Amino acid sequence: MYHYIRKFDSSLPNFRFLDVENFKKQLDFFQEQFGFLTKDEFLNALAKKKLGSAKGKVLLTFDDAMSCHYDYVYKILSKRDLWGIFYVPTQPYQKGKVLDVHRIHLLCGAYSGNELLSTLNVFLNEEMIPDEKREEFRKKTYTRQSNYEGISEFKRILNYFVSYDYREQLIDSVALELNYVFQTAKFYIPVDKLNQMQLKGNIIGSHTVSHPVMSKLSKIEQNEEIEHSFSFLGSNLKLDLKTYCHPYGGFHSFNEETIRALSEKGVAFSFNVESRDICDEDLTSSIQFLPRYDCNEFPFGKAS
Ligand SMILES: [Zn+2]
């Protein structure tokens, strides 16, 4: 599993990403140690529910449809005759706005933790924190005064404490106050390029509409996230098969309703994040939450 693969950008001095050169080194390492499975090997394994010749080989996946996946990754893979699976959250295409999860990354890349926290504090009030978290929030904010944790605290407030009802508006306010403009079209892979990538043998899959923690949503909301993302992808690309990837990943990030919805909608396979190889049994019993390693678990894969 990969996310940002980029080169240093001086407008985002604190941005965390995997450097393109390290990505190439990691591909070399995988090639030498394990080899990559072909798309046919992969499709065969899915159809037969047996890994066969795919066993122990590497499959590459890329989440969130950031433009660096076209600018660097797609080009590097093409040169090496490799392919990958690219998971796309569709809201940016439908709403023309950078997802909150990415807006937080960008702000953290552009400003210091103290700048972000002090700006956030201007707009934040306790009503934005759900009752059950308010006590914890108070305790943590009081201790904060002498001990700023900066970036991680800014993220924790927005990702954990603040209710989803207020989060988007808070990020809007912070960005406006700091004069930071998000460039949606530049941030994500344009649709025609997604098409091109698919035509060249890559697989494009759904990563929901808005990249929520699905387990926090109702059954109806979850259904909409899955349904609407596939209908957008289906009407803009020629999908041969449906695949999905759980936002954030980990067993806390989805639930039975998610799995049921995926199966009902004819999704062929889905990826979770779980640090182990795929085995034969997974192709039957864990097909909607296949295990997947983070690239940082292997040499050259650490973000910096
Ligand atoms: Zn994601």
Percentage of residues assigned to helices: 40-55%
* Count of DSSP-assigned helices: 14
Give the terminus-to-terminus CA distance. 16 Å
β-strand percent reads 5-15%
Overall mean confidence score, pLDDT: 94
What summary fits the major beta sheet? 3 strands, parallel
Overall SS class: mainly alpha
Please give the structural blueprint.
Layout: E1 5-6, E2 18-19, H1 20-33, H2 39-48, E3 61-63, H3 68-79, E4 85-88, H4 91-95, H5 100-110, H6 113-123, H7 131-144, H8 151-161, H9 164-178, H10 184-187, H11 191-199, E5 203-206, H12 219-236, E6 243-245, H13 256-264, E7 269-271, H14 282-285
Parallel strand pairs: 1-2, 3-4, 4-5, 6-7
Helix pairs in contact: 5-9, 6-8, 6-9, 12-13
The structure holds zinc ion.
Zinc ion (ZN) binds next to loops.
Brief descriptors of the model:
7 strands; 304 residues; TIM Barrel; 48% helix; 14 helices; three-stranded parallel beta sheet; two-stranded parallel ribbon; 7% strand; mainly alpha; binds zinc ion; 2 domains
Describe it for me?
48% of the residues lie in helices and 7% in strands. By secondary structure, it is mostly helical. It has two domains: 206 residues, Alpha-Beta Barrel (TIM Barrel); 67 residues, no CATH class. The strands form three sheets. The protein has a three-stranded parallel sheet. Strand 3, helix 3 and strand 4 form a beta-alpha-beta unit. Helix 5 runs parallel beside helix 9. About 2% of the residues have low confidence. Zinc ion binds next to loops.
